[in-house]
Amino acid sequence: MPETKGVLYLVSTPIGNLGDITYRAISVLNDVSLIAAEDTRYSKKLLNHYNIQTKMISYYEYNRDNRIPYLISNLSKGQNIAVITDAGTPGISDPAYKLIRQSINIGAKIESVPGASAFLAALTASGLPTDRFLFEGFLPPKKGRNKRLLKIEDVDATIIYYESANRLKRTLKQLYEFFGDRPAVVAREITKMYEQIKRGTLLQLFNYFSDNQAKGECVILIGKNDKNVYFK
Q1: In this structure, how many other beta carbons lie within 10 angstroms of the beta carbon of residue 94?
Q2: Where are the alpha helices (DSSP H) in 34-167?
Q3: Quick one: pLDDT at residue 211?
Q4: Scanning 52, 80, 92, 211, which has its CA 20 to 30 A from the CA of 30?
């Protein structure tokens, strides 16, 4: 009789406010044999808050090639594993995808435990159209930015980017130069004490954040080139 494989749980965690976690997520994190976390120091705060004692190891972009064989070996032995990111939903702008594919290849079951997502929280609060959107993640820090932008210049949808605070002004300037002065939103520190959702046009946002230094992780949302969705 073939050995039963473990379950790989993709557990969404809060993006700021620690109350934004589901009962199911807490239950899974308590019950699995192992938690693979993007940053164990960051995730330890969450586990301590909910008194979760499960063993935790790091799994991030630069150690994934060494970690995946170990995690796959544990799944093959029937152990259940949870994957969590620093904040939000695993697999969004992190290396969970590689582990998921290899887990599928050995016949392990994949279960998503849904919850917080920074770009969805930003989108729904933005006031921009939500009927169609394109999540682009992070633009390349140096080479390849224009090439990425060229591929979506004619997309008729709300376009969403993640960006760090120290690159926000540069990116807003480039987006304005590329797309023109479209309606746009910058959402930062979502669900945290200093949450800010700033609406305007790309040029207005560039001017604002040139005078007001942003802090924390940011979400940039660009509306369609439609006069009917400009903010008053």
Answers
A1: 18
A2: 40-49, 64-76, 96-105, 118-126, 145-150
A3: 96
A4: 92
CATH number of the domain encompassing residue 35: 3.40.1010.10
Q: How many CB atoms lie within 10 A of CB 106?
A: 13
SS3 61: coil
**150-172 confidence digits (pLDDT tens):** 999 889 999 999 999 999 999 99
Lay out the sheet containing 7-11: strands in order across.
56-58, 34-37, 81-84, 7-11, 109-113
Question: Residue 82 is part of which domain span?
Answer: 7-113
Q: Which tens digits make up the pLDDT trace of 37-96?
A: 999 999 999 999 999 999 999 999 899 999 999 999 999 999 999 999 988 999 888 889
């044999």: which residue's tokens? 33
Q: Which of 113, 142, 166 is the last residue of a domain?
A: 113
Does the residue 1 lie in any domain? no
In a domain, 144, yes or no: yes
Query: What's the structural domain count of the chain?
Result: 2
| Last-in-domain residue among 63, 89, 113 | 113
Over 90: is that where the pLDDT of 30 sits? yes
Cβ partners under 8 Å of residue 3, min gap 6:
76, 77, 78
CA–CA separation, 103 vs 179, rounded Å?
40
| pLDDT for position 232 | 67
In this predicted structure, the answer to whether residue 133 has a pLDDT above a threshold of 50 is: yes
